[in-house]
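Worked Example 4.2. Consider the chain below.
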Amino acid sequence: MFRKRLLLAGIVNVRNIILNTLQPKGINILRRTLTDKQNISKESLTYSEKIQDKGKEPPEPLWTTFADSVVKLRIDHSCSQTPITVHQMFKETVDKYGPLNAMASKKNGEWEKITFAEYYNLSWKAAKSFLKLGLERFHSVAILGFNSPEWFVSAVGAIFAGGIVTGIYATNSPEACHYIAYDCKANIIVVENQKQLDKIMQIWSRLPCLKAVVLYNDSLPERHPNLYTITWTAAHASRAGDMQPAEIQQEIIVSYLPLSHIAAQIYDLWTGIKWGEQVYFAEPDALKGSLVNTLKEAQPTSHMGVPRVWEKIMEKLKDTSAQSGFMKKKVLSWAMSISLERNLSCSGSSDLKPFRTRLADYLVLAKIRSALGFSHCQKHFSGAAPLTTETLDFFLSLNIPLYQAYGMSETTGPHCMSGPYVYRRRSCGKAVPGCKVKLVNEDADGNGEICFWGRTVFMGYLNMEDKTKEAIDNDGWLHSGDLGRLDKDGFLYVTGRIKELIITAGGENVPPIPIEDEVKKELPIVSNAMLIGDQKKFLSMLLTLKSTLDPDTSDPTDNLTEQAREFCQKIGSKATTVSEIVATRDQAVYQAIQEGINRVNMKSTASVQHIQKWTVLERDFSISGGEFGPTMKLKRPAVLEKYKDEINSFYKE
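Applying the procedure from the previous section yields the following structure tokens:
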């Protein structure tokens, strides 16, 4: 997101990038920062000299697969802001916002705060330390731990020192850590605690580039060579989302999503520096229930979540409502219904609200937002995957419009953004300034593959030329693999993913997400629904039921949620656990599910989209179960493999 143009021998434009290493089955993405005095690869220099000898400029490459190569920036003349380095950006922030608080983290129950001036100085100390420990240019500083000031300082310090930032998911196994650290040539690995250190100790001997490991949040258990402890006591997309610079209003955000994921890194770290935001760090068990406590203490002005986080908040609120008395339920239902009706009937840009709407908000909805920690929150964002209509409408009924963002790791996060002034229900907004979107291979309904162009498009996949050529066409457009449509005003709607598109044995194309969403809408007891049918004669579906979460592990338990139990009671079932329903094939529940499936089938436009068989699984999907990734995205191939026996049973003659 933050770039600087340099001139190599008067010819080649150089672009600043950051490296983000993905999971073992993923691909390494080049996005690294090059500074003024940085060495250029011999190959690039030789190429430049050859062209100079011929007396003409070379064709400027738009991609590369080498960390030390250079590429041309895709700069749109409608947004020709001069690219700058991360250091320049941070220095400007310190000049403007130096005394303001930049970060807040809890130590022994108290919030400890760090100003931007202190943050900048700590980052310089980190940079000097990394260089002292042997960090080489074009090599990585890998960071393994939960969100914290140390994570931020290490990331910025790595950039200042001319290195590469590589985030590793804190839930990764030792082997997964090895794959990433080896592939990115990590010279230094920064780890949060003894648990993460143990992973690295198991693989250190197989990491030839690793020179040092730095531990924070724990003391060294024993002396070990090259093991140390820490002693140090991003712009257009964010403006499209109406994030305000600190001189107008200092934004407050809560950091809790994995920083090894590009969305969180851009939203929490780089945007925070650019606009002078104050970042509160949640506790490591944020997604197990403590997030709401941090939100209530921090009182964020802006908040971002992935769809599954918003869904869990919705389910928790529905559970709480189900346990309320008759009058409370009626009042809540009244308030939410008139709020939703009002929000759906107007653009949302008007400040004029009927008396009933204001009364409902004052008496009921404002109290719910306060209980969630959203009393001062003006912008609520969602990214990483599409939101269901049910989730969008539920929060809209609380006067919480969810602004969807859309992008990829390969576009440095959001390429399209919604916001208070760029909003249409179910759309992920418009391309941010300086970026473009187009569709290719459109069908009769206007759906085509979404392609990106702009200064945020990545350099390429590290050491993977074939994969890079597959992703970027000859004109420099990045092909997303996602399906979408554009309306007449340029709002983008993501409608599916090409790889997820089900192609039946009869050759019919069936997008799964709309059908899955309809099933969940018709059946409030259903937590997850996954459509099956690729190369099959008909469609089938795997279903999971809504169950409570273990407070310690956040894993699904066998107990039905209050909302699910209420559903059972209404249809005449006394079941309180998932296992009861599955083991006995509870007649009332199974009949209700079949009736819901029938209603979904009746709404379909063709019989090929009918769900003919289904089964209820014994356990809800989870990260620990392997069905979800770290950002709660459904891992369809993993689900197909894990439940292949159940799936095969659908298609036995």
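The radius of gyration is 26 Å. The first strand starts at residue 6 and ends at 8. Compare this with Example 4.1 before moving on.
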